[in-house]
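Request:
Um, any thoughts?
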Amino acid sequence: MTEQLRNPEDVFEWVAALDHPEMLAAPVHAALADLAARSPQDADLVHRARVVGIDPAYSDTEALNTRFALDPDATGNCVLVAGRRAGQERMAACVVRSSDLADVNHVVKRLLDVRKASFVPMERAVEESGMEYGAITPVGLPAPWRVLVDAAVAGRDSVLVGAGVRQTKLILPGALLAALPANGAQPGAKPGGQAGGPSDEQADESAIPAPAAATLHAWKAEDGAAVQAGQLIAVMEAMKMEMQVTAPKTGVLRHAVPAGQTVALGQTIGRIE
């Protein structure tokens, strides 16, 4: 008889993640706190994030799923990938359901706009993330790393992911993962990091560039709306991967392209006046 798969929400006794920093890697707790302070909508997502202690022997998602008969659609894997373009490295965390595989050779390579995408070695991933191997999560990764979330994950009410340490796990809304920065470029830097002199769009500090060649799935702030720096303003989608676009500064948002339009990497999708 086939064992019925279970939702992680129903299996463990969860506690509020923000209230238990001792159960999270330091960058994970810091990222949740920063997100909670960004807007009331983000605060609501963070307050729905919960954490639970586990046996570190089951930190690997597949092992945890097998041990507790968890539904693999309700648990997520975080895959760290890197590639180079024009001599500059581009890194990303790709979040997919544990029932799926990240398409590194096609989807991820295209989104990063690199010739070749490779998995980040374990030692480097641990050192640069400040997290333990087998527990690395997209929450709290270094600023230069982009976060690419599969639409199947972003659309879930809850998904189980790592907490940065092997002895705990997080469960949170897929929308929280989708609210993480899709483009971690330093202030003033052009997403994607192309070399060469500044173009007109690069020189336009009011421009909001597309973080990847993708479809502008939806605007999350109306044309002419007053927005705050870091506020979610748009969602882009490419080959089932969702990317959030946040306001680079405070001001009035002006749409440059309509929802549903496909744009190129770096193309201006809007401006902040």
